Amino acid sequence: AQDVDAGIADGQINPGDMQTLVLKEAQLVENYLFIEDRHERLNAIMTHSAAGCHLPDQEREADLLVKGCSSQVWLEVKLVNEKLKIRFAADSAMVKGLVALLVDLYQGAAASEVETFKPTLLDQLELTRMLSQTRLNGLAQVEAAFLRAANI
Q1: Which of 13, 55, 66, 69 is catalytic?
Q2: pLDDT beyond 70 at 5
Q3: Active-site residue 53, yes or no?
Q4: 129: which DSSP letter?
Q5: For residue 107, what are the contacts with CB-CB under 8 A and spacing of at least 6?
Q6: Which pTM does this prediction carry?
Q7: What percent of the chain clears pLDDT 70, i.e. is strictly above it?
Q8: Which helix (H) or strand (E) holds 86?
Q9: Which residues, 6 or more positions from 11, have their beta carbon under 8 angstroms from its beta carbon?
Q10: Are 75 and 148 a contacting pair, CB within 8 Å?
């Protein structure tokens, strides 16, 4: 525990990284589900930004563009010490918020857990029926990138 505390203190370990994906998903659902109106909930998610995950303009290369998204999304996913490290950018406020939500879920997740996790976050927040099939396909591509990185 002392090593973990030292890692947190010097910024090497994010306390959220120590949660399982199931627990992180439950916490994210709890954070937003109290907003009863689905449209207001989506608006709250749109204004959300995953802290420390911004991909600067000069690093937005064509090979980082997510295929199948209705908006431009640049996604960098690396495996560092067997955990996902994610940075991203998006040109649409809605997509940026939705991807930030997924990044909050997967950031720091152990590769072994990502491989077996079946997320239901968007369903639980009642967002899937509010989004176009194109947006859902794009978000599925983002999640697929997380899975590919975990399998490397």
Answers
A1: 69
A2: no
A3: no
A4: G
A5: 14, 16, 17, 50, 53, 84, 85, 86
A6: 0.84
A7: 86
A8: strand 83-90
A9: none
A10: no
